[in-house]
Amino acid sequence: MRAVFIKCLSAMLTLVILSCQNADRPVTSPDAVEFIQTYTDSFIDLYTASTEAEWLANTRIIPGDTTISSQLERANNALAAFTGDAYNIKKTKELLQNPTEITQTQERILKTILFKAGNNPATMGEVVAQRITAENNQMETLYGFDYRVDSALVTTGEIDQALRELTDPAMRLKWWEASKAVGKELDTGLLRLRNLRNSAVQGLDYTNYFQYQVSDYGMSSDEMMTLLEQLISEVWPLYRELHTWVRYELAEKYNAPEVPEMIPAHWLPNRWGQDWSALVEVEGINLDEQLKKHPPSWIIEQGEAFYKSLGFTALPKSFYENSNLYPLPTDSDHKKNNHASAWHMDLQEDVRCLMSVTSTPTYYETVHHELGHIYYYLSYSNPRVPLLLRKGANRAFHEAVGSLMGLAAMQPPFLAGRGLIDQQDYPDSLRQKILLKEALNYVVFIPFSAGVMSHFEHTLYNTSIDTSTFNSEWWNLKKQYQGIVPPYERGRPYNDAATKTHINDDAAQYYDYALSYVLLFQLHEHIAQEILQQDAHATNYYGSKKTGEFIRSLMHSGANNDWRQLLKEKLGSELSAKALVNYFQPLMEYLKKENEGRTYTLPVRIL
């Protein structure tokens, strides 16, 4: 009886929300209200079961044990069958054909329902089932893989540490090769996934899987690729300076007989060359030593304290009870996905993080980033946002908020205020190093994400490229957009692209991160100039309730808005890399001076 009462109350509340939020469309179709409520009731149960199964599959990986993978497959098949149900698709299309009879919120919900159906249309039921099985198999292969160096088992964390710290190029090559070994195992699986993903979405008239994912932004593939090229062009002059500086610095560091025209991939401190910031040590800010004094749990507590200082509430007790936050013991009988992530289990109050927190600067930033997602979830989990619109204004907004808070937590005044570094006036040389280290993260990432990753997946899903040319395509793009080359010719049987987790389990969406980095600097510039009146390079968000109010104003409506209008309303501008370029403008003069007399090997313009 109580459950019936709650459902009736929920339906009434939904009717009130959908009717009142849209004064420009006062007529609300009872048919639309009933369909949306019925759909939502079924969807949330299936979504929660699927997410729980995904959580288990990511936190308890036992090679050879099919129990968990079978449970995941059943849950995902049930959700896919519902979202792709022929009646749901037919009814949604019918309701969308009469826009004057539905509210703007209802229209957004119905378009969300149709988008969810796009990946799982009932007309392609057999293909969808095969795709789900293939995705689960690929995930097991990827996360259950045994990495080895000289026959000894190593973890991905150890690989990352080795690439950050080793100075012998021969040893670096061993560890870099170990990081790419899994690609051979993922080769045919990626090809099968490409074909199944494309076939599934074509059942609802999408051209291919890449175009399907891009459509969530209200854009065509061509519009997205044009935007990405614009962003790369905007940052290219600075990236060209960074590339030249790094070539010469690394040639000296590794005692190379000559400076290479392009950067050998194994010289860089990141498996994929997406983040070069470890190349710069900022002496005088001993964050590593300070963090080692504290247990990993302290870092999470500090992250929560930051958000509370901005006016956000404490994390739910269930967050700490249900999250998986720390590395597994070395003698554990299972593995887990070590890629940090935030989870909204039931689109309500059950929020969790999957991390492997250690007392390092990297995880200090990561914790603040992932909690940004968690507080985004909690912000739009309110009665004014229907369950089906509880997501970011667009996918990039979610990442932008997380990255914004990660950036804020690493600025010197913030760290000094938390007692992690000395509070003092730092010399210009130190400030320059901090800015250089940041650029080697944020600027370097744009050509990788908007260039290499997005163009590879665009080609993958838009053409008939197969395993014979996967690696040549990958390295051609790496050279074009990043000026990075492999240590030696790597054709078949290598598949270095597939070693990037997102290509397997978060496909055709990596441009989200490129857009989010651009957006985060737009948000940061606004907060620094308009709210804090502080230098954008030396801010301290901690305790600023006005900053918290601004951030919540971006988050509380979820996807119940037009993201372009939201951007213009809050920032007065469209999506652009200009704020990012502005932030790093002081670095240009320094780099040009450092690069005097050096040979540039990247073109003046990327286009």
UniProtKB/TrEMBL annotation:
| Signal peptide interval | 1-23
Listed name of the protein? M2 family metallopeptidase
State any single GO MF term.
peptidyl-dipeptidase activity
Keywords linked to the UniProt accession: Disulfide bond, Glycoprotein, Metal-binding, Signal, Zinc
- Positions bound to chloride: Y217
- Tell me which domain of life the UniProt entry assigns to the organism this sequence originates from: Bacteria
GO CC annotations on file = membrane
Q: Where does Zn(2+) 2 bind?
A: H369, H373, E399
One Pfam family here: Peptidase_M2
Keyword Cell inner membrane set for record:
no
Q: Mind listing the GO biological process terms from this record?
A: proteolysis
Q: Which residues form the active site?
A: E370, H502
Q: Where does Zn(2+) 1 bind?
A: H369, H373, E399
